[in-house]
Amino acid sequence: MEQRLISELGNTIHQNAGFVSSMKNEIARVVVGQEHMVEAAMIALLTGGHILLEGVPGLAKTLLCNTIAQVVDCQFHRIQFTPDLLPSDLIGSLAYRQNDGTFYAKKGPVFANLVLADEINRAPAKVQSALLEAMQEKQVTIGETTYPLPRPFLVVATQNPIDQEGTYPLPEAQVDRFMLKVIVDYPTIEEEKRILERTTSPQKTTVTPVTSASHIITASSIVESIYIDERVQNYIVNIVYATRKPENYGLPKLKECIARGASPRATIALAAAAKALAFMDMRAFVTPDDIQKLAFDVLQHRIALTYEAEADNITPVDIIEAILGKVEVP
């Protein structure tokens, strides 16, 4: 891309990305800390991706989703996933109209701009399959008719740690559809003091919409135009490929640790997320730092470990760190 075009794109970004800081400020009025989770959710919103949040209950995951919907002034639905949940509880079903004897589509809660799938790994496989079509195709089939989902469309799924009772491992195909996976940790002592102050105060904090769904769609089209140099593209491809063939990058020991590397969706997701991060930083181009910052959230749920690696307490994070330390930075 010519320097002139990059400069013009930079001006366009400065004119359209002002809502990013406003969104962060409004969210921070309600959600204490958790900057990493907030940033990841905004990246997913700008790219049309989906995000998986893993952590124990009570870490503001639901609060964040509700707050984002208010700040963007878009439709929000929360679905509590349980073992007895049915696909029709998610996407809707055909209902009978008595006055004329016909059937009509009664749309389910998935028809919203922002859908919170709470405790997603407590529901059975049929429900996961119904959600998968919505996530991948941005559409839902009820009866014989297919209905498009509203834009923007974002699924934020929360997941309990899989060793908790009553949880099911998510299907690999579905996990791969999540652009990012974020491990949500406990707040610091100072943050928890602020949480206590806010929740015990008689004055409740409210947020003001600072953007709209149509503005998010416009911003998403700008994000797609952000420039990625060929050397940075090669860097992305090499990082992802190293999860499949680590021995080609001077990491032969990792070969025994990885049962399955990341798919090409990881390559696409890493590039798209890096573009969104550049947009949020008011840049018209992606840097290697963007790739390194996002690699963990994009790759950790896409790397399957061998039994030997699990026995040695090796994690996907350890593998990503080794790869980032070995792959040449442009």
Give the key terms:
330 residues; alpha/beta; Rossmann fold; Helicase, Ruva Protein, domain 3; 2 domains; two-stranded antiparallel ribbon
Task: Please specify the SSE layout and strand pairing.
Blueprint: H1 3-16, H2 18-28, H3 35-47, E1 51-54, H4 61-72, E2 76-80, H5 87-91, E3 92-97, E4 102-107, E5 114-118, H6 125-137, E6 139-142, E7 145-148, E8 154-159, H7 172-175, E9 180-183, H8 189-200, H9 213-224, H10 230-242, E10 258-260, H11 264-280, H12 288-299, E11 304-305, H13 307-311, H14 316-326
Helix pairs in contact: 1-9, 3-11, 9-11, 10-11, 10-12, 11-12, 12-14
What would your notes on this structure say?
- With 330 residues, the chain is an alpha/beta fold.
- The protein has two domains: 18-214, P-loop containing nucleotide triphosphate hydrolases (Rossmann fold, 3-Layer(aba) Sandwich), CATH 3.40.50; 226-326, Orthogonal Bundle (Helicase, Ruva Protein, domain 3), CATH 1.10.8.80.
- It is 47% helix and 15% strand.
- It is built from 14 helices and eleven strands.
- It has helices at residues 3-16, 18-28, 35-47, 61-72, 87-91, 125-137, 172-175, 189-200, 213-224, 230-242, 264-280, 288-299, 307-311, 316-326, and strands spanning 51-54, 76-80, 92-97, 102-107, 114-118, 139-142, 145-148, 154-159, 180-183, 258-260, 304-305.
- A five-stranded parallel sheet has the order 2-5-8-1-9. A two-stranded antiparallel ribbon has the order 3-4.
- A hairpin with a 4-residue loop joins strand 3 and strand 4 (102-107).
- Helix 9 packs across helix 11 (264-280).
- The longest helix is centred in the C-terminal third of the chain and has 17 residues, at 264-280.
- The two termini are 18 Å apart.
- The model has no long low-confidence stretch (mean pLDDT 86).
